[in-house]
Structures are given as structure tokens and as C-alpha cells.
Specification:
302 residues, alpha+beta, 53% helix
């Protein structure tokens, strides 16, 4: 049976023995301090150090024990160097203590279920992935990322399924941030728009409004815009995603409803996934045409 820190009872017993010996050694030193002269105390301390060193060296599997999850008593000491996380750890520990003091069995059952959900969410966060539900929460994070120090390139794939795409107030505010950063040359922005065929029929030179105007405004602000019809990617369905690549730092995946409102936004700081997204970007760019090149070939609608 594994414990909450993924150690068996035998493994825990291996850790308890040195701890018990260390405690006994401390008791001996304190007694010697009160009963012996300084010379005798030094001898006792030296003997205790030798005993403890022998226990450590004689441990059956020292390499394994140091690669396992640290003991509960070690965790606060390891976190102490990170003040921000330690403060949250201490607050969480205080709240868990309050929960443990409530004895109502119905309360405890429900509380433990919800704690399991929190642990699952923390597991996702610890893996480097953050999940946001709804539109407003992720827009704040989106702007924070774009303005972050050290970010110089932002690549976005916009899967435009209908004319509402980024046309609401929050979308316009986010585009204003794009324009501001691009105009001030704080950030280089590239965007590939995958446009649904209903919005850009094969017989039409340009996507329908307001998408065409949305693309043109980005072009006017110096954003490198490319566009491609969705039907051109029928054999490359894995490229049909709404994503943002934040330099080499992070990858954002946006899930939209039928009205192009954000339902869920997944942000991962997994470098391997960022590299994979860059590879898919390169493949997508092969199918897309630059807005500037398209503008050279076709007159804007009047």
C-alpha cells in the first residue's frame, strides 16, 4: 500500500530508523551538556556524529532514497527558499488542519472529494500546464504573456469559423494590445488566419466582412498576416487549431464555441510541445498566402 508521498510502509520504515537514532542522539548530547565538563561533552558529540555518519553511509540504498519524494518533514524546509510558494503552502496547511478537525462524516466525505479535485488540478499545474475556463480569465493572462520581459515573437493561428471571431469587446481589446506592442516594436507578431469556406468561398477574392477588414487592419499595423481557406487543409486536419506560440516560452490552445467565444484556454510551458507547435506552424505556412501578396493580386472590395 503506497502512502500519499508514494512510499511503501517498508520504505517509510527505512526513513524512520535514522530519524529515531538522530532523536536519541540529541537527547544524549543534551544530557551530557548538563552532566559532563566541556571535554567530556566534546567526546560525546564526536561519538554521536560518528554513529550518525555510519548510519548514513551504511544505508542500503542511499541513491534511491535521495531521488524519492522528500519526507513530509523535509518539505517545508525545501520550500522555505521560495517565499511566494512557501506562504501558500503554509496557508494551505492551516486550512487542511481546519478541515481535519471537523468530524461530521458527510462533510468529510464531500470535502475529501473536493480536495481530490484540487489535487488533480495541482497535478496539472505541476506538469507545466494551466487551464482557464471562459473568456475573461484567459484574456488577462494573454496580455500578461504578450507584455512579459524577454518575449519578442508571438505567432498566432486564428481558426476563423464565423464572422464573430474576435469581434466582441474583449476581442477588440486584445487586438488593441497587439497593435500597441507591434506599433512600438516591442513585439513582432505573425498571424495565420484559417478562414472557413462559408466566409471565403472559392469564387470570392476576399473573405467576407468583417473578417476581411479585421485582417486588413492587422496588416496596416505591420503584423505579418497570412491567410488560407479551411478546405485547403482537408488532408492536414491536425493543423486546424486555434493556437498562440509565445516565443519559446509557452503554447496556448484556445477552444471556441459556435459563436467563437472562448470556452477553454490551455496554456502549457512544456518546451517539447512548443517545438511541436512551431513545426506545425511551418507546415501551415506552406499552405498559406501572405496578405500583402494577396493584396497585390486582388483589389480591395469597395
Amino acid at each position: 500500500m503506497k502512502s500519499v508521498i508514494n512510499l511503501t510502509a517498508d520504505e517509510l520504515q527505512q526513513f524512520r530508523m535514522p530519524a529515531t537514532v538522530a532523536g536519541a542522539a540529541c537527547c544524549v548530547v543534551f544530557l551530557a551538556w548538563g552532566l559532563l565538563p566541556l571535554g567530556g561533552l566534546v567526546v560525546v558529540v564526536g561519538l554521536m556524529v560518528s554513529v550518525l555518519a555510519g548510519i548514513v553511509v551504511g544505508s542500503k540504498s542511499p541513491a534511491k532514497t535521495r531521488t524519492e519524494m522528500p519526507l513530509e518533514l523535509e518539505i517545508p524546509f525545501l520550500l522555505a527558499s521560495d517565499e511566494a510558494v512557501f506562504l501558500r503552502y503554509r496557508r494551505a496547511a492551516e486550512l487542511l488542519l481546519k478541515i481535519s478537525r471537523r468530524q461530521d462524516p458527510i462533510y468529510r466525505g464531500i470535502a475529501l472529494d473536493q480536495l481530490d479535485e484540487l489535487v488533480q488540478r495541482l497535478t496539472t499545474i505541476a506538469s507545466g500546464t494551466l487551464v482557464f475556463d471562459g473568456t475573461e480569465a484567459w484574456r488577462i493572462v494573454y496580455e500578461r504573456l504578450l507584455r512579459s520581459t524577454g518575449l519578442y515573437l508571438y505567432r498566432s493561428v486564428a481558426w476563423v469559423k464565423n464572422g464573430h471571431y474576435w469581434q466582441d469587446e474583449l476581442g477588440r481589446n486584445s487586438m488593441a494590445v497587439n497593435y500597441n506592442l507591434q506599433d512600438r516594436e516591442q513585439l513582432s507578431i505573425e498571424r495565420i488566419a484559417i478562414v472557413a469556406d462559408e466566409l471565403w468561398p472559392a469564387t470570392a477574392d476576399w473573405p467576407s466582412e468583417p473578417i476581411r477588414a479585421w485582417l486588413h487592419q492587422q496588416h496596416a499595423h505591420g503584423i505579418l498576416v497570412k491567410l488560407v481557406r479551411e478546405s485547403a487543409l482537408q488532408s492536414e486536419r491536425d493543423l486546424l487549431q486555434d493556437i498562440g506560440i509565445y516565443g519559446s516560452r509557452a503554447l496556448g490552445i484556445q477552444e471556441l464555441d459556435e459563436k467563437c467565444r472562448t470556452v477553454r484556454f490551455v496554456l502549457t510551458f512544456d518546451y517539447a510541445k512548443v517545438v511541436d507547435a512551431e513545426s506545425r506552424w511551418d507546415r501551415l505556412a506552406f499552405f498559406a498566402e501572405s496578405y500583402a501578396g494577396h493584396l497585390d493580386r486582388f483589389e480591395l472590395p469597395r
